[in-house]
What does this fold into?
Amino acid sequence: MSAALLEVSNLHVEFDTYGGTVQAVRGVSFSLEAGRTLAIVGESGCGKSVTVQAMMGLIPMPPGRVMQGSALLRGHEILGQKVINGKEIRGAEIGMIFQDPMSSLNPTMTIGDQIAEPLVVHKGYSNKKAWARAVELLELVRIPEAEKRAKQYPFEFSGGMLQRAMIAMAISCQPTVLIADEPTTALDVTIQAQILDLLKDVQKETGMALILITHDLGVVARMADDVAVMYAGQIVESGSVDDVFYRSAHPYTQGLKRAMPSNDPSIARNLQAIEGSPPDLFAPPAGCAYAARCPHSMQACERYAPQVFELANAHNARCWLQHEQSPHRVEGLYLGGRHD
Amino acid sequence: MWRYTLKRLLQGLVTVWFIATATFFAMHNVPGDPLSGERAATPEIRANLEARYGLDQPLATQYIIYLENFIKGDFGISYTQRNRQVNDIIREHFPVSATLGILAVMFAAMGGVLFGALTALFRNRLPDTIIMFMVILGISVPSFVFAALGQLLLVNINDLLGFSILPVAGWGTVSHMLMPALVLGMGTMAYLTRLMRSSMLEIINSDYVRTAKAKGLPPERIFAKHQLRNAIMPVITVLGPAIAAITTGGFVVELVFAIPGLGRYFVQAVQQLDYTVIMGTTVFYGAFLVFMVILVDLLYGWIDPRVRLQ
It folds into this structure.
């Protein structure tokens, strides 16, 4: 494996609240290679957004705190930094788009001005040059009549068009990484597909790497090269899309798949919800965070936190079932070929 | 935009007509009348006078005459002041009140926006605590107390320096205006500070400010381009009524600082039951308030494109 573009290791983030300290992210590690797409999936509150916001320095401190860990972009630490190699991290090295495009743009500023802004700030463009580039970027994200549209305000755009404008803004300074934090969650289904296609095309044209945060496995299958499944502030399984989908090695991944609707008529079945609810992150359990909901949980799972097992090249699972002495065989669960 | 302006002006005219009508009938129902002075007139003289001034006409006719005169801009003559028309009183004294009021509003708006933004940026830290304590004082202490304290402060400063940097009372030059305007604007400034603080706090946590941060903009630029303009909206909204309230409600401060504003005549007229002056000044103040609210509505549209373009 070549040196990764972005290498996050052992990231811990906490938040102080009135109820105590929430350990939102508990030792997340992943790597991202240039030009590839990494999807981070997991249910609400599992720490997906906090992970990327910590990298961008968008966590309000206080109450938030990055306890330990590092994030290296081309070998340079970005946690707690604003600038690496004379380039601003936010906006110039890493672009970011958000979940709700309706509220993510300034209502009293024209779309064109908002897209031009990072160019003026990071690249020192004149206002005129930045504006011209903003119009080009709007054309790039396939907004018709870009010239005219650039002069309009966010309330004159539809949700899908706003998300396109957000993408134009995020890629304006040609970042090496684009983070999309649930970019299609707030859009209706027909628009979702268009935005995903657009992201893919833009990625192809610019060669940037993409981190896609979502809880929609359909989006993952369509977009991602690699997947990291998060649960209760940790990555429980990671690997290529094929590994994670077809050789799922963690019961949580399995549970997510069973809860996903399928349009394959040969798989006629009811959706199965994962029973129970995620653990309290004020006081995370000593053992595996998923043990209480896991249908295959063993005694060891409740007592000892599982380590990460490498099953194949870059396919990892944080589950005791992967231990070589684990007696269990689980229907449908990939065990690194141990029981075959 | 022009249609909108025209529509607002027409609505304003209707409002002014309503104020004029309400004032007329309210005054008509006040016990006594202009002719029941201290020296009782004989019934014959009284009847002659009533006929002379049209007071024997039916109410509807009187109302029509009153409206006709108003449209012509004639508010009549004062009953208590020798040889003065209501128009003269307004013309001479309103500019004084208006100058003082506008200066006070400027103090209030600039101070309110500045302090409100500061408290929000330093929320729950020392500057916030200090300013919010002052705000409570500003809202709860009445203006005549501030006026007296302001004068006392000026007396002491002038005394200490041995010459007069600002006059303690009177009217005429810009230096006369500063202290009364500050005192007059104090309550409104405190109110606007609170308003600005809460609106700014909301915006600091908004999605688009997060976007601006993710774009890597420096904090000054985020403040100036993304926070201020959006946070200022609620302040603009209350500015219209505030201008009118300060301009019309300044008579206490005018009295303490011996400023020849309109407020004094307004109060005097009520005490002396000076019909024409009461009606004239009430309608004039009413029209002024309506005009200010319209002006602010138009300003609002200029700042917020959503209002302008819909």
